[in-house]
Prior knowledge:
Blueprint: E1 2-3, H1 10-17, H2 21-33, E2 37-40, E3 43-46, H3 49-59
Antiparallel strand pairs: 1-3, 2-3
Amino acid sequence: GTEIGIELSREEMAEMIGTTQETVIRLLSDFKDKKVLLVDGRRIVVMDAKPLLQLTHSIV
């Protein structure tokens, strides 16, 4: 996987994308369960970028 080199708190992530901390926690948990992300504290590793890219294309 590819480690994201920026360590952000859940609160900081929420502020960046304009949502609540609870939503960020739920999304990270969902992606972790689906093996898209490996989450360990503030460390996030992208294990499968395809679902993330599909999500960004559906939003834009």
